[in-house]
Request: fold
Amino acid sequence: MKNNWIFIVAAAGVAIGLAAAYVFDIKQPAQAAVFAPVASPYPSAIYTNGMVESEQSQGENINVFPEVAGRVVKVMVEEGQKVEAGAPLFLIDDSVQHATVEQLRLQAMAADTTLQEMKAQPRKENLAVAQAQLSLAEQNLVTARDQYDKRAEAYKIDPRSISMDTLDTARDNLEQAGASALVAARQYELTKAGAWSYDIATQEKQALASQQAYRAAQALLEKYTVRAQNPGVVLAVNTAPGTFVSSAGTYDNYTQANAPAVVMSTSQDRLAVRCYVDEILISRLPDAAHIKAELAVRGSTVKIPLEFVRIQPYVSPKIELSNQRQEKVDLRVLPVIFRFQNSEAARLYPGQQVDVYIGQK
Reply:
C-alpha cells in the first residue's frame, strides 16, 4: 500500500513538471515601448549630457547670499514666484543694527549742532558778560590809581604822614588792577572774535565723519532686507523663519553643506543648456559658426532644437552629480552653452538633465 502512494506522488510530480515546462515554454509577445529610444538626429554627432539652467550672460543661476549674518524673521517669496528687481526676498533680524543707526543719527545731529553753535559765536549774552567784566576791571583800575595818587601825594608833602608800606601796597594794588583790566580787555576781544577757524574746521570734519558713520550704518541696515537684484523666478528657498543665515548661506541638512539662501533664475521663457563635452571628443567639436545641436527630454519623445551661445574656454574636471563633494574623477570636460525657447508643450526646468547631440551644419 505504501509503495502505491510513492508511485502516485512520483507520477503527479512528473505531470506537474511536464505542465510547467509547457507553460514556461510559451513565448509572450514583447510589449510596445513607451517611447522611442533616443537616437542621434545627425549622421555624425557628439553625445553629451546637458544641464538646464537660466539664460544669462555669465554663470548659471542667481545664487542669493546675504551680506550680513543673523536670524531670519520673515520669508516673503515662494518657490516658482516671479519677482521684480528690488523685491524683498526675506528679512533678517535687524533690531541691534536699527538701534545702532539711531544712536549714530543722534550723534551726527549733536556734532552738527555743535558746529552751528561755533559758527554762531559770539553769543550776545557771553559778549555782554565779557564787556561788563571789562568795565568792572577798568573801574577797579581807576579806583586803584586814585588811591595810589592820594597816598603818593601825601607822602610827597610829608613822608611822615604815611608809611612806606602803605604806599607800596597802593602801588601793588594799582599794578594788579592794571593787569586785571588788561586780562578783561583780552577776554572781551577773544569773546568778540568768536570760535577759532581751526576749531570750526575740526568740528566740520567731526560732523562730516559722524554723518558718514550714520549713512554707513543706514546702508548696512538696508542689507538686513535681502532683495532681488534682477527680475526673475524664485527656483528654491533654502531658509525659513528662525534659520540662521550668513554670507556663506544656510546649512543644508541633506547635503551637509552650505547652500544659497535663495536660488533664482531669469525669466523661464528662454532657458540655457550647459553641456560637458568629454576632453577626448573636443577635437571633433565643429567650429563655432557651424555648430548645431538638439536636446532630447529623458522619458519622453520631446526633442528641441538648440541655438549655440558660446564655448566656455576652460577645460575643467567633471563633477559627478551623485556626490559633488566626495567624488574623485580624472575626466575633464569642456562646457558648451546652448539656449532654447521654453514652451508649455514641453516645459523644462533649471537643474533638469537632458541628452544633447552636437552636430555640424
